[in-house]
Amino acid sequence: MSGTLDGLQVGESAEIIDISSDCTRAGRMSTLGFIPGRRVTVTRLAPLGDPISVEIDGQEISLRRAEASLIKVK
Fold first, then answer.
1. Is 13 helix (H, G, I), strand (E, B) or coil?
2. Is 6 strand, coil or helix?
3. How far apart are CA 37 and CA 24, in angstroms?
4. pLDDT of res. 24
5. What is the pLDDT of residues 35-73, one digit of tens each?
6. Contact, 24 vs 30, CB < 8 A?
7. What is the pTM of this model?
8. Could you give all domains of the chain from N- to C-terminal order, each with its CATH number?
9. In 6-41, which positions are buried (b, 16+ CB within 10 angstroms) versus exposed (e)?
10. DSSP string for residues in 26-70
11. pLDDT score at 31
């Protein structure tokens, strides 16, 4: 089953399969480690649900929910 990163709950992991070409920050996202084939785990959600914190390759990164919605996972 596939979806987007913003649909995962705390503790859930998934494999990145694509970053939307509509993302103007796609280059920045890839330098942070958001590359197809890598696993990402949601570690925290802010009280109002934005931003979300994820772990990828041992790093914890915070993303806006809008950015996370551009990252396709399975």
1. strand
2. helix
3. 21
4. 66
5. 999 999 999 998 887 899 999 989 999 999 988 988 999
6. no
7. 0.85
8. 3-73 (2.30.30.90)
9. bebeeeeebebeebeeebeeeeebeeebbeeeeebe
10. HHHHHHTT--TT-EEEEEEE-TTS-SEEEEETTEEEEE-HHHHTT
11. 81
